[in-house]
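In practice, a research group might receive sequence data for several interacting partners and want a quick structural hypothesis before committing to experiments. The following worked case mirrors that situation: the sequences arrive first, and a predicted assembly follows.
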Amino acid sequence: YLDATRGYGAEIVLTDDIQSAFEKADELQRAGLALVHPFDDMAVAAGQGTVGLEILQDLPGVTRLYVSIGGGGLIAGMATAVKASHPHVHLVGVETRGADVMAQSVAAGRLIKLAEITSIARTLGAPMASPMTLDHVRRLVDDLVVVDDDETIAAMVHILERTKTLVEPAAACCLAAARRHVAEFQPHDQIVILMCGGNASVADLAKWTNSKSRNELPE
Amino acid sequence: YLDATRGYGAEIVLTDDIQSAFEKADELQRAGLALVHPFDDMAVAAGQGTVGLEILQDLPGVTRLYVSIGGGGLIAGMATAVKASHPHVHLVGVETRGADVMAQSVAAGRLIKLAEITSIARTLGAPMASPMTLDHVRRLVDDLVVVDDDETIAAMVHILERTKTLVEPAAACCLAAARRHVAEFQPHDQIVILMCGGNASVADLAKWTNSKSRNELPE
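A structural hypothesis for the assembly, expressed as C-alpha cells:
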C-alpha cells in the first residue's frame, strides 16, 4: 500500500501506533496542513453521503443497504443522505468481531474504547467511534451485524473468484452479513451491498486463506 | 472454475487430456449438440471481433492494441474488425513461453504442434493453431511477442493490487508485453491492452506468487 500511495504522489510519515499517528497528525495540522479525519468530520461524512445519493440514483427502489463501519463516518453520511428521502430503506451496519467498536458502543449506550483490534479487517479498526458517529448510528441505522473473520474471508474469496474484483475484508464483511439475512429477504427486495475498499495484497490473500479454516460459502 | 461453471447451469464432462476432450466433443456433436470451438470457428471469431468494434467506438484514436493468442480465434476476429477501418493500428499478438504455438508456427511458416504446454497460462495452451487463425495472424498482426511466466505474474499482481481486478495469466501477459515496448511508445499513442479472462483462483495466486522469484514491475 505504501508503494501505491507514494506512487500517487503522497509523502508518508510512519508512526508506531494509531495513537501516535493521531498525535503526529495534530502536530502537522498545527504546522498548517489540513487534517482529513478518517471518520469524525461532518464534511467528510457529508462527502461520503454522496455514495448514498448515487445508490438512490442508480436504484431508486433499494430496500436494504449494507455498509461497513470503522469509526462510523461513512455510514453516518450515507444514513443521513439515504434516510432523508428513503426512510424505509433497511440500513444495516456491519463490523467484524474484534473490530466492533460501534456495536459495543451501541450496546453499552456510550463510547467504548477497544484495547486492541484483533480482526483481520484492519481498516475497520478504529479503537473508538465519536459522539457524532455514535449518535447517527443510534438514530438512523436499523441493524448492526458483527461477522467473524472466517465468514469475511469466505465472502472475499467468493467476490474475487466470481466477480474478479479484489475487495478488502472491511468491505467483504458486508456480503458476509447479507448472507446471514438470506432467510429474511423478500422477493421484492432490492439489496445493495457497499464494497468500499480494496486494500489487500496478494500476500494478504495468501496469508488469510491459509491461516483460516476457510468456510466455503454455501450456494 | 468447475463449481462456478456448474453454478451458471452447465453440465460438465471431464476427460483426461485435451485430445480426448476434442474427441468427446465430436461425439457429443454427432449426438446433436452444437460445438462451440475455442478458436477454429469463423462465427466465433466474428463474434469476438465485436470486441474490436467496441474498442474503436470507445477509443477511435487507438494506435496500439495488445491481444493474447491461444489458438488465435480472438485475435483473428479482432484483427479483421479493427484493420478493416483502422489499418494503421499497430496490432500486437501476445503469448507466453511454453504456450507459444502461434509464434512458433509463424516462424516456421507452417502449423506447429506443441507436445506440451509448460506455461502457467493454461488458457493460452492450444497445442495447435488452425489454418484459418494462422492465416489471419500472418496477414493482419503486426508483431508477435512471447513473454515469460515471471513477467506475466508480476503484471497480474500489479493489475490486481492497483486496479483491484483479477485477470488470469493469459490476459496479464498483454501488459507484460506492453511493458517491453515502453521505450517505443510515442506521446500521441493511445494504447489498449485487452484483458480477456479471469480464470484464476486464490489458490492459483498463492501458488504462482510463491513458486516464482517474483519480479517486481519497475515503476
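Before designing any experiment, note the following. Chain B touches chain A through 19 residues (CB under 8 Å). The two ends of chain B are 33 Å apart (CA to CA).
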